[in-house]
Amino acid sequence: MSSIQHTKKIALVDCNSFYVSCERLFNPKIRKKPVVVLSNNDGCIISRSNEAKALGIKMGEPYFKAKNIIIKNDVQVFSSNYSLYGDLSRRVMRTLKRFNSQIEVYSIDEAFMDLSNFSDEDVERVGKEIRETVLQWTGIPTSIGIAKTKTLSKIANHIAKKKLSGVTSLIGIENLDPILEKVEINDVWGVGRQLTKFYQKNGIYNAKQLKNKSNTWIKKCSNVLSSRTAMELRGIPCID
Description:
Elements: H1 2-6, E1 10-15, H2 18-25, E2 35-38, E3 45-48, H3 50-54, H4 63-72, E4 76-79, H5 82-97, E5 103-107, E6 110-114, H6 123-138, E7 142-147, H7 150-161, E8 167-169, H8 177-180, H9 193-201, H10 207-211, H11 215-221, H12 224-233
C-alpha cells in the first residue's frame, strides 16, 4: 500500500500525429498512406503521418519546399480544419476525465493526468487501458508516458511513441541514467534553442548530464527554469 501514497505518478497523454489522425477518421482510405496537414493559409506542414516522416518531410517545413517529395510519393495533403480538430480534442479530453477528473489540458493534443492513486505495479496497465479506451471511443491513437514528474513523463512519452504498446512507465526504475543518457538535451521539455546552445557550450549534451550537474552550477550559470528542469529530471516535481 505504501507505494501508492508516496510516489507521484504523472501521465502525459499525447495524441499521435493528431491532425492527421483526425483526417484519417473520416477518410479510412488514407490510413496507411503518407499524409500531411497544412497550416491556415496552406503555408507550412503542421502534422505528418509516420509514413510522411519516413519520406523526410519535416515538421514546420513550408509546403513549397516539400512539394517535390509530396508529388513524387503521392502524399495526401489536407488544409487544416480546426473546428474538426477542436471537436475531437474535446472528445479525447472528456474520455480522459473518466479516469481522473483532474486533468490538465496542455495543448489541443496533450494532457497531463495524475495517476498517483494507482499502485506502482498497476500504473502501466492503467496506461494501456486509458489508451485502448481513447482509441475505442474517439478513434484517436495516443502515446502515454508515465513518470514522477512532468519533465520525465515527457521523456517517457517520447519512448512510448516508438513502442508498439504505446505506453511507457518510468515508475519504479531506480536508476534512470541509462535512459536519460539517450535523450538529447534539446529534446528535454522546456529547453529551447538558446538554452541548448548554452548547455552544449558547457558540455551538457543529454538529459543525464543536466540531471547530474550540481545545483550550484545551474543556479550560478543559468536560470530558475534550468534548476527546475534538473530537479524534475531527478524525480522531484516542481512544475505546477
